[in-house]
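#struct-help
A.M.: can someone run this one for me? Single chain, 437 residues.
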Amino acid sequence: MELFEGFDFTRKDRRKPLADRMRPENLKEFFGQEHILGEGKLLRVLIEKKDIPSMIFWGPSGVGKTTLGWLIGKHLRLPFFPISAVSIGIKEVKDIIQKAKRQRIILFVDEFHRFNKLQQDTFLPHVESGDIILIGATTENPSFEIISPLLSRMRVITLNPLKRDDLIKIIKRAISEDVELKKIPVTIEKETIEELAILADGDARRALNILEVCYMVIKDTKDRPPIIDHDLLQEAYQKKIAKYDKKGDMHYDLISAFHKSMRGSDPDAALYWLVRMIEAGEDPLYIARRMVRFASEDVGNADPNALVITVSATEAFRFIGPPEGYLALAQACIYLSLSEKSNALYRAYNAVSHDIKNLPEYPVPIHLRNAPTRLMEELGHGRDYLYPHDYPEAIVEQVYMPEEIRDHRYYYPSDRGFEKKLKDFMDKVNRITKRKR
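D.P.: on it. Structure tokens below:
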């Protein structure tokens, strides 16, 4: 049908970027995602049985979500129609589905989370009836970004960042098979390919884009030796690249230095490591996630606003993106560095976790139990519960822990920041209730 003519990724067009030219034409050429595509794994079984449901592909950029959708369409011999929620509206989506009534299609929607909840409702009847196989690709957690009715009718398939060995295979395949690259006799050592795979950080598109730029630089610079090495990679990436070792220790060393600098209340050092990571190509959202954890683990209730600011900075970065969004991350970094510190929350959680893993599952005290039925009321559920608001200062002496561990205490707030106020209130509660600490 003419609607879908032109969506054939196998057409070799030298004007396309290398990443498009090297799209796999079958599953044998698709490297990575063994957890879903290996022998006997879920997605491979579904493909082999030609029993493909509507799905959500959840994973980072450059791991093969679009290509995998197209390969499924090819295997099922169904038209594949890729669109992006960034550049198309629901009206256009409805037109596509209406025109496709004559034939079942695979509708692939990139950035699916960009459609709001009301817009996502549009797909429900078509997914339910099976008129289309909807494959939504997203980098965001589907639990938060996809409406529940749609999510319940689709299977979520998680794609992981590509492993270094997979990226090396993809790079080598491009060097040996791409017609345009083979026109230029270029030397590239094994170590340089490994360095490029590390630099790509799980993203095949990034690896191939950098490789293509390297070839273009050699092609356009007549006096340059036809060698791709570390210096050319750095030039192609347009950033100063650290020479990562094969184990990728630099990644972990930088984030460790960043975390420890904030913990040590040194904003200058923390900002240095933050920018160093960003300039080296680290995923900014990975850094943001580490700061969110830091806000609870190392600041905690000494400054509850730290978590608010850090989550806000993360959302600000998602909203405006790079490079402007880097300032929001820097703001959170400095705030965390100069916040009062307390790991009382972290220690309390670990102490509770230890008891839960090592002690029996004690029953809920009967006066704390819910009593939604008459039988439960007759059994005494909720009886003798003391409603704190009926007592002075909304505090009353009452046991809330299982009797066997009623004197166990986990949270010991520090004397720093807002936590000092919490400590004072806890002392007040303990005096009134005669609770031991």
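A.M.: thanks! The radius of gyration is 28 Å.
D.P.: also worth noting: The longest strand covers residues 132-138.
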